[in-house]
Amino acid sequence: MPFKKDFLWGGATAANQCEGAWNVDGKGISCADICTGGSYKQAKRITPVLEEGTFYPSHEAIDFYHHYKEDIALFAEMGFKVFRFSIAWTRIFPTGEEETPNEKGLQFYDNVIDECLKYNIEPLITISHYEVPFALTQKYNGWASREMIDIFTKYCKTIFTRYKGKVKYWLTFNEINGATGNFGAFLSQGILNEGTTDFMHQVDNPKQRFQALHHQFVASALAVKMAHEIDENYKIGCMQIFATSYPLTCNPDDVVLTQQKNHIMNWFCGDVQVRGYYPSYMKRFFKENDIEINMEPEDKTILKEGCVDFYSFSYYMSVCHSADESKENGDGNLLGGANNPYLKASDWGWQIDPKGLRYSLNEIYDRYQIPLMVVENGLGAYDKKEADGSIQDDYRIDYLRQHIEQMKEAVEDGVDLMGYTPWGCIDLVSASTGEMAKRYGFIYVEKYDDGTGDYSRKKKKSFAWYKKVIESNGEEL
Q1: Across 414-422, average pLDDT
Q2: Catalytic residue among 60, 122, 175, 435
Q3: Dihedral of the CA atoms 132, 136, 137, 142 (nearest 10)?
């Protein structure tokens, strides 16, 4: 049996994609709250002033805020050992800068955590998951300002202290390395540059993005150190997008280009957060892109003293790279690159590559030698209800089965794998398009892109399948 006896099987969500109740019980406005709905062809827009008659998916989402007991009971029925969710920063500090935290927000997460513990489900909490308080964007332009470090660590101290003894596992920033590309500045850094109306295509400022990343690295390291001081049982992880990349051909130009892309996208942030220092290959990148990172004298020590305990990542697809720019036109692949002729794609054009997960797990573990966790992996698909009301999502079962099989292979290869939390264990709003139509979950939610739906929950075929997977510790697939 390759998986450990205490392997953490579960599922993952994010507050802005599932909670709803966007202005309830003192919650402030987050960056996610000003992103409009969209479609695959027309991604979400940012409206810095809330517009009447405009659909904002996070405002209602699937109303986990009022359904959390029902949802966690369903997760328990599947046998979850862990539930990954995020805290909405603006529930705790509505503008980020209040003197005292919002008690109703703190109590809500007490309730969610207690509900998990009732079923012996470990909470795995993401501290910042794509929803910087919008007031901090307006005042400081988000993480572009060093002021954010103290604001963030105050937030961390509040929740680390409040939930001491109840929570063991934490992640600092969701998919922090998304900001190495120009689609990450608003989502993860709260940076809103003048002229921006489309959150996927900001007026880009690489100097600002990488400076903001430095501020996040320092804040993450300070949070890790603080967490260990508050509770020696806390385990703090980083969280990366792992964008597995292959050379399109064996042309050495393709191979070198792919290595360079991997350095920036896949390794840079992990190298800083796991090893505690900037890697040497970034010197040339910064020089050639006219980027100079402003560091305070103490920053190098902070990074070294705040290395994470484990490495977690999302894995959905792989990409290819070609030195021939005319071939770098992969349709649908969120991270660009060239299409791989050997792979099929999802309904949204994301190429499906289970073996790439085994390859990635080996590469990451060989590099860092700390425990790993796959905290996002799943298939966004159009689910339809049959005449009898059932949802026969065999395609999702096939996708997850193939990826779990490759996780098994990686464990046999010697990888120390802690757990697996497939993305969107219950249907929620898609981060990339703002749609409900792009469904991921084991549980169907009656909520639709036209705003209709009664929020009722229904088990899909994959629900019973995943329950067996967990019961058998991955043996019955």
Answers
A1: 98
A2: 175
A3: -70
